[in-house]
Design goal:
Elements: H1 5-30, E1 35-43, E2 47-57, E3 66-71, E4 79-91, E5 94-108, E6 116-126, E7 141-154, E8 164-171, E9 174-178, E10 186-193, E11 198-199, E12 205-208, E13 211-214, E14 233-235, E15 238-240
Parallel strand pairs: 1-10, 6-9, 7-10, 7-11
Antiparallel strand pairs: 1-4, 2-3, 2-5, 4-5, 5-6, 7-8, 12-13, 14-15
Signal peptide: 1-33
Protein name: Lipoprotein
Organism: Pseudomonas zhanjiangensis
Length: 248
């Protein structure tokens, strides 16, 4: 069926213009540059870091939460890491805003798959800093240090029963950050390892000048008997009496 002349004329003259205007507006909206901040620092040997940035929709459009991950690999020597993390970006018609950054600090203490573990940290995005929280310096950098301690224990897994396994505990691995202050700033989070390892549970090992000795528990309790009765443990397939040197 033929369209009326006025209708055909309107479509011929105006539709390309409207379509071009629509595409131009969409293109300029989606190509708006996002804001970023830098997360950087140093990792000890045999450590890696994963930062997982979580985003929420900020402009009321019909979108859903998203996440972006940034990760360094393991290295046998200390390494520098540097992640450029968006504070905001466009996803179609939606404006995505940073809500928090989860940190996963991985450490390995041997070559076997089970000889690695991790602890968590977090960059918390707030409107106002808690009292006493560190602030950005005039240079635009906020510097913090996290201290990681290895907690040793005897494994209860059947495949490595009695073998030394470790947990990782990292204190200070995070910061509170004001969201509207973040663009173009640098958060420098350094990690160091405490040279003194600790038992994963109190009163399960006894410390001597030559090292730690594990003791038999009280019946029905994990704590050492009094006086302590010592036992052996396994480390890399060896029968040992004192940690970390194995033998006295």
């Amino acid at each position: 069926m033929d369209l009326p002349i006025k209708t055909r004329l309107f479509r011929t003259l105006f539709w390309p213009s409207l379509l071009g205007l629509s595409l131009s507006a969409c293109s300029s909206f989606s190509s708006m540059a996002g804001e970023n901040f830098t997360l950087e620092g140093e990792l000890p040997a045999n450590f890696s870091l994963k930062a997982q940035a979580h985003y929420g929709v900020a402009n009321g459009c019909d979108g859903r939460r998203q996440a972006k991950s940034f990760k360094s690999g393991f290295q046998s020597d200390p390494q520098q890491y540097r992640f450029r993390i968006p504070v905001s970006y466009r996803e179609g018609l939606c404006e995505m805003r940073l809500a928090r950054v989860g940190l996963f600090i991985h450490g390995r203490y041997g070559n076997k798959d089970w000889q690695q573990t991790y602890d968590n940290g977090s960059l918390v995005i707030v409107d106002k800093l808690p009292e006493g929280a560190p602030v950005f310096q005039a240079s635009g950098t906020l510097t913090k240090q996290a201290e990681c301690t290895w907690w040793f224990q005897q494994s209860t897994a059947k495949s490595r029963l009695g073998e030394i396994s470790k947990l990782l505990n990292c204190k200070g691995a995070g910061a509170h950050l004001v969201g509207n202050e973040l663009p173009d700033k640098t958060v420098r989070l350094e990690f160091r390892v405490n040279l003194e390892e600790e038992p994963s549970h109190d009163d399960t090992w006894v410390k001597f000048p030559e090292g730690w000795k594990p003791c038999l528990p009280k019946p029905g309790w994990p704590n050492c008997q009094n006086p302590p009765v010592f036992k052996t443990f396994k480390m890399n397939g060896r029968e040992c009496t004192v940690y970390p040197n194995c033998t006295e």
